[in-house]
Backbone:
């Protein structure tokens, strides 16, 4: 019987992870621009009926949530870039190298898996 070994997770270089983060930041900036445009359209298009009013209210709420989500993703990416440029991809709590599997899923991580609950409290 042939035993398949688990696929090896390749660690990228710090420079490559930083590049990924910066690319992500540019993409997020573009997403934000599109979302802001949609929001502006939503609040400036006149409403014809009461039915539409309810729909519009929901759409507006969804659009606001999207703007908030993208905004915090941008903050997160900027924070990770500030941290990584100074310290590399090490945990901001214990200084251990951040696990490759974690970085490959979320390059904006600034803590190891063990300390991921503390990520939001860390000021960089
Ligand atoms: Zn840690």
Residues:
């Amino acid at each position: 019987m042939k035993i398949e070994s688990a696929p090896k997770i390749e660690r990228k270089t710090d420079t490559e992870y930083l590049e990924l983060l910066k690319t992500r930041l540019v993409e997020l900036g573009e997403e934000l621009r599109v979302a802001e445009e949609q929001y502006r359209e939503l609040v400036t298009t006149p409403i014809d009926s009461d039915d539409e009013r309810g729909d519009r209210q929901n759409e507006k709420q969804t659009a606001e949530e999207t703007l908030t989500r993208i905004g915090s993703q941008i903050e997160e990416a900027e924070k990770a870039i500030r941290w990584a440029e100074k310290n590399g991809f090490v945990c901001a709590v214990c200084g251990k190298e951040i696990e490759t599997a974690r970085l490959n899923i979320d390059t904006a991580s600034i803590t190891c898996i063990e300390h991921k609950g503390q990520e939001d409290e860390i000021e960089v």
In short: Residues 91, 93-94, 96, 111-112, 114-115 surround zinc ion (CB under 6 Å). The chain is about 60% helix and 0% strand. The domain at 14-121 is CATH 1.20.120.910 (Four Helix Bundle (Hemerythrin (Met), subunit A)). The radius of gyration is 20 Å.
